[in-house]
Amino acid sequence: MALLEIRNVTRRFGDFTAVDNVSLSIEAGEFFTLLGPSGCGKTTLLRMIAGFDAPDAGSIVLDGKAMTGIPPEARNIHTVFQSYALFPHMTVAQNVAFPLKMANVDPGQIGKRVEEALEDVRLTGMDKRYPNELSGGQKQRVAVARALINRPKLLLLDEPLAALDAKLKESVQLELIGLQKEVGITFVYVTHDQSEALALSHRIAVMNHGRVEQVDEPSKIYGFPRNRFVADFIGQCNLLDGEIRACAGERMTIALAGIGDVVALNIESDAPGLKGALALRPEKVAIGRDLPKDADVNRFTGKVHDFLYLGDVTIYIVELAGGMRIEALLPNSSAGRTKFFEAGDEVQVGWRYDAGHFLND
Amino acid sequence: MATPQNRLHKWLIGGPPLAYLVVFFAIPVLIMVLASLRNSGDFGGLAPLFSEESGTLDLTTENYGRFFSDLIYTELFLKSFAYAAITTLVCLVIAYPLAMLIARSAKKHRDLLVLLVILPFWSNFLIRVYAWMIILGPQSVFVSALNRVLGTIGIEPVTLLYTPFAVIVGLVYVHLPFMVLPLYANLEKHDPALLDAAQDLGANAWRRFWRVTFPLSLPGVYAGAALVFIPALGIFAIPDILGGTEGIMIGNVIKQQFLDTRDWPFGSVLSMVLTVMAVALAGLAAWVARQSRT
Questions:
Q1: Which residues pair with A33 in a beta bridge?
Q2: How far off is chain A from B212, nearest CA to CA, in Å?
């Protein structure tokens, strides 16, 4: 059985359903992320796991034990809060020692364990500082050390990187991955930042309007989004409305609104007459003055409407003859790249038949 | 940068309060110091500063000698100190839960609740204290009901008015808002996430209060204690009205020296001792507050 079972959990606030019949199984040792836009219910779900809120329906089971009616202080679950919530009147060492004192650990052992915990998060020598004397990254590490010191079964992290600057985020992400591997404690991580979720997690649950849209490994979530919401929310994606015309073997023909017929990969669930959208990542769309003719490539002519130069890559927004716009991503370092396209340039865009996949509505 | 304009701004902003303090605090204190060193006049008040007979300034330390030679004044100070300390403690015990309740109630209700706390200020101070005279008087419904209850369990009827108890009740009643307001101002700023974190990390309600809420509220406790203790120490109106002869405090004696006995120099001595005590206590409180923070 999974370490944490969330079974048909629903939570309503008046007329608003914050969490709508959610079921999830989180395995021991997993780095599991709840990902979604603000208001999707991920924080409400986290608070219910921690015990600060109770489901209106359904149950939460930790290690085979139903958590119903058990207050947060009696759950073997600790949280790293978004604001870190370090006690301002206590030193770093006192903050980290807090859970041990609450668990009535022998005072003789506390000092040694605090020292070890601070060593784990590379804060040796900071024990006498107060939280207001720490940088954002250091505060975050104290919060993690404090939450991990008495080895909870589950560690909840509520957007713990939101307050850090972009440069710092990357190194902290690597630290978190390393720490989780080292301590072997199950992490449930909440974020609205899809790149964070992709970088950190073993599995991701994408949430929207209180429901779980998809639970998968990061590469599956990115490569094979199950619906329009997931495709759109994770990374950039062209969503081209259309209808399946014909299926034959490995391939099928889709009539895309405002673009025309294209060839796409035929998978089991596809059948003529189905309506939906072709999900196409911009990095899979080629752009050039003259793309070579190829039966495997859908090729269209258009004009550069606008572009975003991002340093390593440039995103071109190409307007096709029918008025539809397609985003194409071109690495600025790609071989033979000598000229950037300007707005108004006539270009061709093309993608292989197996570059995108069809999302059934 | 100290440009001439900046310096002008500094004086414009800092000047008026500074002038106020000089005129209404520093000069009166100096007058008081001087008065405590003078002889009293033949018909009360002060003797002339310049003695015609000896042709010198007529100054003496005799007044201080009188204070230190008669232990009754020291005793009175200690008693006033005890009354003020008890008042402060009772105010703290009553005000803390009230301030916490207001700070944790819905934001839209807080202003109304604070208004209710300061509402008594809208009626006259003396009228409110006289009201307590009626409430604690022997004919009051409250006291007669109390005595009837005590009678059934075989206890002699009690008198409340003109006792130290009545003085403490009056002191607590009058000073309570001064404890509630600084406590509320402090508690309202507490980040609720800290209590969530404490609970999440295993602290029950009792430990959340003593490990997080109370230590974080200490600046409010010190501020409230200072605002209650210092005025309570020197007050004379409440013991005058509610205390009778038993409940007299140092403020009453100072008032007597100036208005009834007309011994201004000795009244000044008592005032000086009171001022020095209050300043010393305020300094001590500030020092304790600073120590607890580092």
A1: A189, A204
A2: 7
